[in-house]
Amino acid sequence: MSVSGMKKQLHKASQLLNERLMGAEGTKMDEDFLRMEKSVAVIHTLLLELLSKTTEFLQPNPAYRAKLSMLNTMSRIRGQGRSTGYPQTESMLGDCMLQYGQELGAASEFGGALTGVGDALQQVAQARDTLDVHVKRTFIDPLQDLNNTELKEIRFQLKKMNGRRLDFDYKKRRKGKVPVEEVRQAWDKFTSSKELAERSMFILLQNDVDRLSHLAAMVTALLDFHRNAHRILLGLHGNLQARLTAASNKPGRRFRSKKIRVRSEHNGSIGFYHQPSITSAASSVAGEQVTVLPSRPGSPVSSYADSKLVLDQPCCRAMYSFHPNHEGELGFSEGDIIVLTCQVDANWYEGSLGGRSGLFPVSYVDVLVPLPLP
Fold first, then answer.
1. pTM exceeds cut of 0.90
2. Which element (helix H / strand E) includes 360?
3. Strand-strand pairing, 260-263 and 365-369
4. Among 95, 104, 323, 334, fewest CB within 10 Å belongs to which?
5. What is the pLDDT of residues 107-141, one digit of tens each?
6. Nearest of 176, 156, 160, 190 to residue 27 by alpha carbon
7. Exposed, middle or buried, 88 (CB in 10 Å: 0-12/13-18/19+)?
8. Spatial separation of the C-alpha atoms in residues 223 and 121, rounded to whole Å
9. d(Cα 168, Cα 187) in Å, to the nearest integer?
10. By three-state DSSP, how is residue 338 classified?
11. Which of 262, 271, 335, 346 lies closest to 308, judged by CA?
């Protein structure tokens, strides 16, 4: 800094001390200017808090925000274009439901419902990711740009104008000791800075259309998100109601103990054993020794060894009657023994009964001899 520059800074500091401590009066600004200056200060404070609160609204977890910022910074340093997204709460809850729904399996009504809810929550999380992107592009970024350009320039102009005003007031107070030409030059610089700052503030305060459009864009993004979330959750609600109705109308299952299929210690034949305390009858089927639990009066449990199918082929017993609704399905009555051919998927078996073959639901039968592992 030159000597004249240092002297000017000392003069400004002297004038400021005189105004703050000694009560000296500086040049007063007109009411319109002061009103605009106050409005600009409010907008500056508003933008700082509004941008912070909007970010907190979209990404409420500060620890995740800090981690995300660090990871994205490291990606930029490494030249990686892909950035890490914020982990939405709906996505984390959906992942949990999907995991345990898949572990319970499709045969479980509750497991199937968990899988459906998990899928829906994943879709809601994707809609929220879209909301984040839209609000950032149409609301946060434009306001951040406004704060970093126009408002920053206005603050710089006001600071410069105030410095020139102090320089002019100091020289005016030292009138007689400071050449008149210097006082006039200080006045010209001060008025020029004031006019420039005043014009910039006027343009900023009159241009409400852009800020209103940014605000409207944010509300539109919110509306789109809630509309999509409503559509997803409404479909999920209908699906759950259908599952609830089906589960309520499904015939109740009664518990019965399972027989254990073991190999005889004497001749290597295969048979079924139940509780040793219950009297059992021995029968010989094609030379194979089988121990059978007799049926109790009124019990749905009947002898599983009344056919060779139980012993040497994969088979199952019908727990409920099934009436086909489509071509290719196999109908049967409660208690029928069905030969298993294969398992089509988690919900359907293929089998044969009495010369007929077709598909039937997994949940309608109890497997006696399982299919061989693939």
1. no
2. strand 356-361
3. unpaired
4. 323
5. 788 888 999 999 999 999 999 999 999 999 999 99
6. 190
7. buried
8. 18
9. 6
10. strand
11. 271
